[in-house]
Amino acid sequence: MLEIDDFRERIEKRLGRILNIAPIEKGFSFEKKFKLTIGQGNYVVRLAPFKSLVSKTLEFELMSKLCENGVQCNNPIVMFKNEEQESVCSVFSYLPGFDAEDCIAKIPTEIQYKIGVDAGRDLKRINGLSRETNDWKKRKWKKHEYCVRRYLDQSYRFKNDKKVMQFIETHYDKSESDRDYQQHDDFHLGNIIINERRYGGVIDFNNCDWGDPLHEFVKLEWITWPVSNTFAHGQIEGYFGKRHIDEVDCNQISVYIAMSILSTIVWTIEFHPHTWENIEPRIQSILDHFDYFESIRPKWAT
């Protein structure tokens, strides 16, 4: 079991007496998350199984580097491990504000756009980190082939699925770039904070990877666009420095979105079937949006 009390003494020795502990319930993460109030400040604690020590250490180090590069994210404070309880505890600064997915509709559109621009610039800073590996596209294709097999093994089918799979097969660019770039890989309104009608930062780096930065825009289509198309346009402006994305990038983004339809179907049916009634209409909306990928230009890319 992941328990905050297993680390309470060490946290208080480092930061001071804990005045309040509030669980953070949102999200599908295997971790347990808490907001701690200590003295005059708030902190976020993430508890993960001990088997994830290596990945949590890398995430901690990455976020330290991102903070140094000006990204507005939770600043890493300290990490503890408890081998006896088989758990890892990471403590971060707390980003004040509210979940953008819940509150952005209450904000005037011109401010939504400005927040989107600032978020796009922050995403660009995240993607600015790179490493000399360049195997992400190969790994991505292997995952896609697995998802196709799993999709064909279950009973659900969506209209024109063969057409969509053929589009992916024909248009996926398997040529690797010179290096892989840092991906947040879950950049959307649900992981963006708004504080006093301003961009407050981005949270939840536990899905981060190294690869093609254009993959970041899959979640813009799935989650951000339906909530605030104004924010989405702003994010594009902030990231690309323009509102119109060129055809090559549009093609690659559209392929990633098409791939995500299959992976989302497999993932939802296998692990979260109770959410299917909400997911299926969104899948159909995306298929309609792209006319079953007869069109490769998202509405937010114009």
Describe this protein with a few key phrases.
three-stranded antiparallel β-sheet; 2 domains; Phosphorylase Kinase, domain 1; globular; five-stranded antiparallel β-sheet; single chain; Aminoglycoside 3'-phosphotransferase, Chain: A, domain 2; alpha+beta; 302 residues; 45% helix
The helix-strand sequence is: HEEEHEEEHHEHHEEEEHHHH
Please state the average pLDDT score.
94
Return the CATH class of the largest domain.
Answer: Alpha Beta
Q: Could you give a short account of the major beta sheet?
A: 5 strands, antiparallel
CATH superfamily of the largest domain: Aminoglycoside phosphotransferase (APH), C-terminal lobe
Q: Provide the CATH topology of the largest domain.
A: Aminoglycoside 3'-phosphotransferase, Chain: A, domain 2
Looking at the chains present, what oligomeric state does this protein adopt?
single chain
> How many distinct domains?
2
Roughly what percent helix? 40-55%
Radius of gyration: 20 Å
- Contiguous runs where pLDDT drops below 50 for at least 5 residues: none
Task: Say how many strands there are.
Answer: 11
Report how far the terminal alpha carbons are from each other: 49 Å
CATH architecture classification of the largest domain: Alpha-Beta Complex
Report the sheet-strand fraction.
Answer: 15-25%
Element layout with pairings:
Blueprint: H1 8-15, E1 18-24, E2 32-38, E3 41-49, H2 53-68, E4 76-82, E5 87-93, E6 98-99, H3 100-103, H4 109-127, E7 130-131, H5 136-153, H6 161-171, E8 180-183, E9 192-195, E10 198-202, E11 209-211, H7 218-227, H8 229-240, H9 247-271, H10 276-289
Antiparallel strand pairs: 1-2, 2-3, 3-5, 4-5, 6-9, 7-8, 8-11, 9-10
Helix pairs in contact: 4-8, 5-9, 6-9, 7-8, 7-9, 9-10
